[in-house]
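Pasting two entries for a bug report.
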Amino acid sequence: MLKLSSTIRSLSESTETGTIVRRITDNPNYVPALRSNEYFLNRNGHAVPAGFGGYLFATLPVEAAAPLNSFLLDPEVTFLEHGDVIRITPDRKSLRALYRRNSPHNSFLLTERCNNFCLMCSQPPKPNDDSYIIDQILRTVPLISPETRAIGLTGGEPTLLGSKLIDIVQALKANLPHTAVHMLSNGRNFKDIAFARTLANIQHHDLMIGIPLYSDISSIHDYVVQADGAYDDTIRGIINLKSLGVKVEIRVVIHQATYARLADLARFIRRNLTFVDQVALMGLEMMGFTKFNLEKLWIDPKDYQPQLVEAVEILDQARIRVSIYNHQLCVLDPRLYPFNRKSISDWKNEYMPECDDCTRRQECGGFFSSAKLRYSRYITPFKTAS
């Protein structure tokens, strides 16, 4: 697991005020005319090239005086590389990696506010005004490599940003014309057809909205998200988006409140929402509210395999693309192997000691780093390759 945030130590005076968002390079031959907008990453303390906007040192500089805007990195973030984008908050002595060029798992948290209160929310909502995040994202997007394959947008609930969300999607389209965007939303605000149309009118070439639907019965869905009327809003939102040509993924987190009717939900989707672009059936992440509601939510994945197999077969036979996320290969019914995906972001993906000698580890989705709180009692390493 990588730590994307760390403390940072100032080594010199700073000419920059407020929050600093910069792309970094470790190329000492970087074009001189462009250096003032970049931060140089120095790994050995020697040979500090002049002209950069700032400097990050993995070790203390050999010279007595460091250049202006110099910072000493914590060893936990020395994974930073050329092309990465960072945020430095000098008064808090903090650094965060906002974007990693060589990672396939880059995403932006747009807000921590939400109009649901899901039992298993891994990012519990906060009512604070966090609109400052938008400015940081809009400063970051032009610094991202245009070769980036995909960017995620998460929350909280992104649609609560209203027109600011539209600004972000427009910025992604303008600066990253070949990059796919996957946004997580509860879908409720897309019941407003005008808002859904505004998003659709951007005509992003590859935008998909991942929307949770937890049951074919409205009261169960509303219970899981802890919001009356959420089910109707969500269904209307899905239909509006698809009617306007926006791709939609339905997401189902599997736990005690949702596993029993997985097949019924699959039939509902086959009958009423067959036009969605894909369905993701997801394992539980032991973060946020999940830890507090664990006894209400936890079921060993091995124990819901019959329901999962039936749901996948129903969707697959209807030619609806279906994927299984956040599961370990050894607990899945072998019939589900073709649908399993390695979906956990690299910075929070781990494997348990039981996995050390597994011959199929590279095929397995592994665990969230938080899974040490509780995970399947059936984790068993494969002894031979498939």
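Entry 2 (this is the one that rendered wrong in the viewer):
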Amino acid sequence: MENIRTINKNQKKKIVISNNLILLIIFVILFIVFSFLDKGFLTYYNISTMLRNMVPTGIIAIGLTPVMISRGMDVSFGSNLSLTTVIIALLYNAGINIYLIIIIALLSSAAISFLNGVLIEYFNLNALITTLGSMSIYLALALVFSNGNPVGAMSDKLYKLSYGSIFKVPTAVWFFILISIIYYVILNYTVAGRTVYVIGANPQASYSVGVKVKKVRIMLYLFFGLVVGIAAVITTGSIGTGYAYHGYNLLLPVLSAILLSGIGLEGGSGTIWGTILGVLLVTVIFNGLSVMGVSSDKIQILQGVLLIIIVATYEIRSKKIKE
């Protein structure tokens, strides 16, 4: 995608700066500002901690990107992650082999999102309403299975996934990089990736040329669930517990990061690179505020305000570009 596009309409030229370039500029500015405001921001400890904490949000945002490009939606990922961490912890306490636990966790998380996809596509249900309902169900199941309490899962192998490092970069960050590369390659260099964009641009036209829209979307939900499972494994390893509320605060930062990248609710556009920039920007904002001593409740309020501003700005900018 070009950073600057020239639009010629009625012989008047408009220069439109891409979302990615805007995000990159804002990210650099904020990074520099926070570095000057607090000396602790630029330390290795804070940067590594910030990147490590970013991973669950980042991985989920990457997985949700193609779902939203194809005009799908799943807001139940926080509850899915929570339920999966509880499953991991319960299996760990039952003495199951840790590698088998990871496989079961990934499969169960993928099955949850697959079920969402089947309900949405084959019963023609509204994606937002359906996943809001399933979000409540998965949260309730997590509370029942855990009796509403954190379930310990202090595994050295899981811990190393989050707090280990390779070349001084947290191992969890390498997972984020790997998943980002895989999704980037698929969306940009494969027939499957082009199909996702075609479906998002015009589902009805896709049907008419023989594209199996429902099956493609269901597979996107399935792989999204697999990605949520990876985030759940990393979360369990970093915190050492399975808990029904581990994913409670993920909804706003994930959606903020995706919408910041320019992916609209109507689908058809968006890039993995844009989502990565959105994730980095959201992470820097909230980490910088935390380092400066801003309380978590105020940051939570800011998350909601930021999401509203992002959606409003996107709608206004989209209308101006179309004019």
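Dev reply: Rendering is fixed now. As a check, the viewer should reflect this: The CA atoms of residues 205 and 278 lie 30 Å apart.
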